[in-house]
Amino acid sequence: MDYEAFFTGALDELKGEGRYRIFAELERRAGAYPRARRHGGTGPDEVTVWCSNDYLGMGQHPKVLGAIHDTLDRCGAGAGGTRNIAGTTHQHVCLERELADLHGKESALLFTSGYVSNWAALGTLGARIPNLVILSDAGNHASMIEGIRHSRAERQVFAHNDWRDLDRRLAALPKDQPKLVAFESVYSMDGDIAPIAEILDVCEAHGAMSYIDEVHAVGLYGPRGGGIAEREGLMDRITVIEGTLGKAFGVLGGYIAASSALCDFVRSFSSGFIFTTALPPALAAGAAASIRHLKDSSEERQGQQDRVATVRARLKAVGIPVMDNDSHIIPVMVGNPVHCKQISDWLLEEYGIYVQPINYPTVPRGTERLRITPSPVHTAEDVDKLVDALSEIWSRCALSRVAVAA
Ligand code: PMP
């Protein structure tokens, strides 16, 4: 086989479909978020980032940076081993306590990313609980899908957010078969929110465990940033809450929070936990500082919600097609991968506005979009510039606008 020809052929196919990904090379600057320096390209050197998952700007927060600096100076760079062998530091243990407390659970278990936490936890539960059937929401993230696949457990996919479909499927299974229902709270690309209470009612009626991915909600919702389940008073009814430290908390890492027995079980049997180097202690300390701050302060959450409402209203007022939802994610619908890339390029090169195009397979074909994520540190002037730029581009391409109510 001509391996090189195979690789370039596959990439050419992606390019032909307008789906080939080109990364913007950014240099984030402490204290200057959402501004970043862009390397390469022909547009402005300084850009305003409108598509980051550092939703609250915590990746630049003085308390987070202070904790990281301090721990780095005292403890050095790496953890020095896997959690099993020399890599469990005081910072990891403190962070796990902080996370268990955040979700009102007995215990929490850290992983190197949210992806790994889903993959490892679902993979382990699915592989190790005899005869387990996993019911997975049709909109679930790749990390959950891969974890479930990897487990080789029996799997059923239920219609997205459709607790009635879930109910029918659970009812059709043998009463004594172990069951686990995996779903998310805020879905990252449409920004829609799961009917958690109804799903939990159904799980409880059929004796199923529940596993919720709150990756796009932790830090952002609930009085202490525990997520949508905290906001809705449902955390104690959920078997496993999974989250990330890499988005609203601004650092890196993933976790599950659950009973002591379940966390200990995953800790003891999961290869994705056991056989990999632990997170650097400085990052664990930074994440703990971020969680602690957001437990006490709602200022960032409120600032973000205000900014989201303004951006959404302003885009709608000029007829830009925004998908409606009740979260902080604003999908601007384009519906064509080539247009989506072109709009993103113009925003970057002409206006210094960075919004990465989102294409298949991240979203279904025909629903290509720009995913805008306002933060509390975007200014009113940033909003004006974004709305004016998108409006100008929409006119330039004669893209259809949504009728604006008089
Ligand atoms: N779950 C969902 C729903 C996600 O969107 C993502 C990442 N985009 C992850 C898990 C993985 O989290 P992390 O980025 O921390 O690996």
From TrEMBL:
<keyword id="KW-0663">Pyridoxal phosphate</keyword>
<dbReference type="InterPro" id="IPR015422">
    <property type="entry name" value="PyrdxlP-dep_Trfase_small"/>
</dbReference>
<dbReference type="InterPro" id="IPR001917">
    <property type="entry name" value="Aminotrans_II_pyridoxalP_BS"/>
</dbReference>
<dbReference type="InterPro" id="IPR015424">
    <property type="entry name" value="PyrdxlP-dep_Trfase"/>
</dbReference>
<dbReference type="InterPro" id="IPR050087">
    <property type="entry name" value="AON_synthase_class-II"/>
</dbReference>
<protein>
    <recommendedName>
        <fullName>5-aminolevulinate synthase</fullName>
        <ecNumber>2.3.1.37</ecNumber>
    </recommendedName>
</protein>
<dbReference type="InterPro" id="IPR004839">
    <property type="entry name" value="Aminotransferase_I/II_large"/>
</dbReference>
<dbReference type="GO" id="GO:0003870">
    <property type="term" value="F:5-aminolevulinate synthase activity"/>
</dbReference>
<dbReference type="GO" id="GO:0030170">
    <property type="term" value="F:pyridoxal phosphate binding"/>
</dbReference>
<dbReference type="InterPro" id="IPR015421">
    <property type="entry name" value="PyrdxlP-dep_Trfase_major"/>
</dbReference>
<dbReference type="Pfam" id="PF00155">
    <property type="entry name" value="Aminotran_1_2"/>
</dbReference>
<feature type="domain" description="Aminotransferase class I/classII large">
    <location>
        <begin position="46"/>
        <end position="390"/>
    </location>
</feature>
<dbReference type="InterPro" id="IPR010961">
    <property type="entry name" value="4pyrrol_synth_NH2levulA_synth"/>
</dbReference>
<keyword id="KW-0350">Heme biosynthesis</keyword>
<comment type="similarity">
    <text>Belongs to the class-II pyridoxal-phosphate-dependent aminotransferase family.</text>
</comment>
<comment type="pathway">
    <text>Porphyrin-containing compound metabolism; protoporphyrin-IX biosynthesis; 5-aminolevulinate from glycine: step 1/1.</text>
</comment>
<keyword id="KW-0012">Acyltransferase</keyword>
<keyword id="KW-0808">Transferase</keyword>
<dbReference type="GO" id="GO:0006782">
    <property type="term" value="P:protoporphyrinogen IX biosynthetic process"/>
</dbReference>
<comment type="subunit">
    <text>Homodimer.</text>
</comment>
